């Protein structure tokens, strides 16, 4: 449905519909034969618009990608659901008869799961022949539909053909369960009509490419749109090891982290368009509607072509550094009570409320920027506190849900949402600034996270997420037994008292604390300043800056999941001891990320080398997530919520200092080369120092103070 709404806003039958008047053929060529239009007499100027992913046609490809994704999920859902809809043991003379209680059969665990779920849905007595008819009925009305659909779309335009088809298919999908209860005949009719509607989408979209896809880009545009067909198979037909409540929980937390990090990164993108690079004002929040041309050329030209869709502020590099780091100002004290409360009362409501508050504040950031710099900083501080509730509270869940042999892969699967969110906002942020103005970065991701992903997380979170397997009503007995038995050797029950003195004296805990501070210094530097570095140092245009800035985080997202799988594989096969795994992964992440970061100022003349080093640095640093950053779950699972809050305090202190220090280095150096050199050298040096301390003092066994009842009351 969301894809259908986007389609109606974006898609035009042809690029010419965007103009209020069509150019005549006399307007097309001038005396010299060059292509011109009524509002642009410089054909060479438009050549750059034919390159890069930040263009309307690539936005159209992305929307069609989502349309195809929606259609194929709707095609696949019955193929998956029918395994739960059918009673495999009982046969009835009525083809649509149902029973509310499935019985046990040779499929054992599946029917046991249904029984434990208290028959939340009816089960039908459909024979294999009837099931075959149902699965194939989607194609019954599709034999003749493609020809008239393609013809009509080619004549009258595909905008409404595709949009109506997507809408009808989506609505019918919602009513399929009711149709199944009403009768087999009605269900088949719904599937036939749904198949015709889906043909309208899959066939009609190619009439769009006739008018939108240049011949030299036709393959990449159509494949980008068509690749949406493959994700549903990846999502619905997944390995059996992921068919569990704990992996579903990891996926929901992945979406939560995705939402939070899109909201964290949006200012880092928008600030490149919010700031007037040429004029300085005595008022830190003064603004102008028309940015002037300066050394950044293409960026200001883009702003000018956008007709100053948003105000531009005269913020110095120091003020920008304060704004970027203000997200961490209110986060110094919040993680400790957040982790403590989540550990005692459960993280379910802590995480849900934090996600909601952060999403709402994201919507109002552009208004706060107009109202004044002070209000904008206050909003960012409150938003940081709300985000801490999400990022800290979730670890109290893993103490009771993650078996030791799966701890790395579950936490990294959930945590990879942060890098994926960073990748997405970097990829599309430049396009949003260029086309509709920087405020829409906040509006779209605020609305997306509040009304789309964030709302979906809340809808999934509150009914499906439980603080422990014992209270979950849908979990199978086998999975519940597996988790409980795996965690039986460690004391996961939280206590009202905390061994404060013992914690202060614990060198293994201090090793993790120091690692958090040092590793997050480098991570926050990369996350906050990657777009600025690519835009200012590499002189990349806004069209290219988004995708270049996003690449390191996409690779990091993949690497973090692979690192978690590798760590748990080495542990389960007993290749290495747990402490060796933690130290090796930390050393790999810190050493190689620093090694690839330091040479950046010396290779600034080569865009390819710079991007290669940035990507390798991000990929390497992601291995730390399976090292020191998850080590606190090993040494003190009982106090995981409190410890994660404590560690987040040091991470946010680092996050507050590092962008500010970077801003000072850059502003004090008239030649940005030396300023950036100092930024990267300091970040790498701090990270190496933290690694050395961790390698000396880190441990992986549960500490004595984590086994005791109470030493000091909090």
TrEMBL record:
UniProt catalytic activity: 3 Na(+)(out) + phosphate(out) = 3 Na(+)(in) + phosphate(in)
Q: Where does this polypeptide localize?
A: Apical cell membrane
* The Major facilitator superfamily (MFS) profile domain, residue ranges: 243-702
**Taxonomically, which superkingdom?**
Eukaryota
Asked if the Swiss-Prot or TrEMBL record annotates the protein with the keyword Nucleotide-binding, the reply is no
Residues in a coiled coil are: none
Q: Does the keyword Cell membrane apply?
A: yes
Predominant location category? membrane
Q: Which GO terms describe its cellular component?
A: apical plasma membrane
**Any stretches that span the bilayer, and where are they?**
349-369, 375-398, 410-432, 438-462, 507-530, 550-572, 584-603, 609-633, 645-666, 678-697
Molecular function (Gene Ontology), one example? symporter activity
Q: Which family is it part of?
A: Belongs to the major facilitator superfamily. Sodium/anion cotransporter family.
- Entry protein name: Putative small intestine sodium-dependent phosphate transport protein
């Amino acid at each position: 449905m969301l894809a259908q709404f986007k389609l109606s806003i974006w898609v035009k039958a042809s690029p010419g519909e965007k103009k209020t008047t069509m150019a005549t053929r006399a307007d097309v060529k001038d005396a010299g034969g060059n292509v011109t239009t009524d509002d642009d007499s410089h054909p060479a100027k438009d050549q750059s618009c034919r390159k890069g992913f930040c263009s309307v046609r690539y936005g159209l490809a992305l929307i069609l990608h989502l349309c195809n994704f929606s259609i194929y999920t709707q095609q696949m859902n019955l193929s998956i659901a029918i395994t739960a809809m059918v009673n495999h043991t009982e046969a009835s003379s009525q083809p649509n008869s149902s029973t509310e209680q499935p019985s046990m059969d040779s499929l054992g665990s599946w029917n046991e799961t249904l029984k434990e779920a208290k028959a939340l849905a009816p089960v039908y007595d459909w024979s294999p022949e009837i099931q075959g008819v149902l699965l194939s009925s989607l194609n019954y009305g599709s034999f003749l539909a493609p020809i008239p659909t393609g013809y009509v779309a080619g004549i009258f335009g595909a905008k409404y053909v595709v949009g109506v088809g997507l809408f009808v298919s989506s609505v019918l999908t919602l009513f399929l369960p009711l149709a199944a209860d009403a009768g087999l005949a009605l269900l088949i009719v719904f599937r036939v009509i749904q198949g015709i509607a889906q043909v309208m989408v899959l066939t009609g979209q190619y009439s769009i490419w006739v008018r939108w896809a240049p011949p030299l880009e036709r393959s990449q545009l159509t494949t980008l749109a068509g690749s949406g067909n493959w994700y549903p198979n990846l999502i619905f037909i997944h390995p059996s090891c992921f068919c569990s409540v704990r992996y579903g929980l990891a996926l929901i937390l992945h979406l939560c982290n995705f939402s939070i990090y899109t909201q964290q990164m949006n200012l880092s993108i928008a600030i490149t368009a919010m700031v007037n690079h040429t004029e300085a004002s005595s008022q830190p929040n003064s603004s102008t509607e028309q940015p002037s041309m300066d050394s950044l050329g293409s960026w200001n030209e883009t702003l000018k072509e956008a007709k100053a869709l948003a105000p531009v502020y005269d913020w110095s590099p120091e003020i920008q550094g304060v704004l970027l780091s203000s997200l961490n100002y209110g986060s110094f004290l919040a993680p400790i009570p957040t982790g403590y409360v989540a550990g005692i009362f459960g993280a379910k409501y802590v995480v849900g409320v934090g996600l909601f508050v952060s999403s709402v504040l994201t919507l109002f950031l552009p208004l706060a920027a107009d109202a004044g710099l002070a209000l904008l900083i206050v909003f960012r501080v409150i938003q940081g506190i709300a985000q801490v509730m999400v990022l800290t509270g979730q670890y109290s869940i893993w103490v009771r849900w993650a078996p030791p042999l799966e701890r790395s892969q579950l936490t990294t699967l959930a945590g990879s949402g942060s890098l994926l969110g960073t990748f997405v906002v970097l990829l599309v942020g430049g396009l949003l600034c260029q086309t509709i103005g920087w405020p829409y970065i906040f509006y779209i991701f605020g609305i997306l996270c509040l009304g789309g992903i964030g709302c979906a997380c809340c809808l999934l979170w509150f009914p499906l997420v439980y603080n422990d397997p014992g209270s979950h009503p849908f979990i199978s007995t086998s999975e519940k037994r597996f988790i409980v038995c795996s965690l039986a050797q460690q004391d996961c029950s939280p206590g009202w008292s905390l061994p404060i003195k013992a914690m202060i004296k614990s060198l293994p805990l201090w090793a993790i604390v120091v690692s958090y501070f040092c590793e997050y210094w480098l991570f926050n530097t990369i996350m906050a300043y990657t777009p600025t570095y690519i835009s200012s140092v590499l002189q990349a245009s806004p069209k290219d800056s988004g995708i270049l800035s996003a690449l390191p985080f996409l690779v990091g997202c993949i690497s973090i999941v692979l690192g978690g799988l590798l760590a748990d594989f080495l542990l389960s096969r007993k290749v290495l001891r747990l402490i060796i795994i933690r130290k090796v992964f930390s050393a790999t992440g810190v050493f190689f990320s620093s090694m690839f970061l330091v040479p950046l100022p010396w290779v600034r003349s080569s865009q390819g080398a710079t991007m290669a080093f940035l990507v390798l640095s991000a990929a390497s640093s992601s291995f730390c997530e399976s090292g020191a950053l998850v080590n606190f779950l090993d040494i003190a699972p009982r106090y995981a919520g409190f410890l994660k809050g404590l560690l987040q305090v040091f991470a946010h202190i680092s996050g507050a200092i590092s962008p500010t220090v970077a801003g000072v280095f850059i502003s004090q150096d008239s030649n940005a080369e030396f300023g950036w050199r100092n930024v990267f050298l300091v970040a790498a040096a701090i990270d190496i120092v933290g690694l050395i301390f961790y390698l000396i003092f880190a441990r992986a066994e549960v500490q004595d103070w984590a086994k005791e009842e109470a030493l000091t009351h909090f």
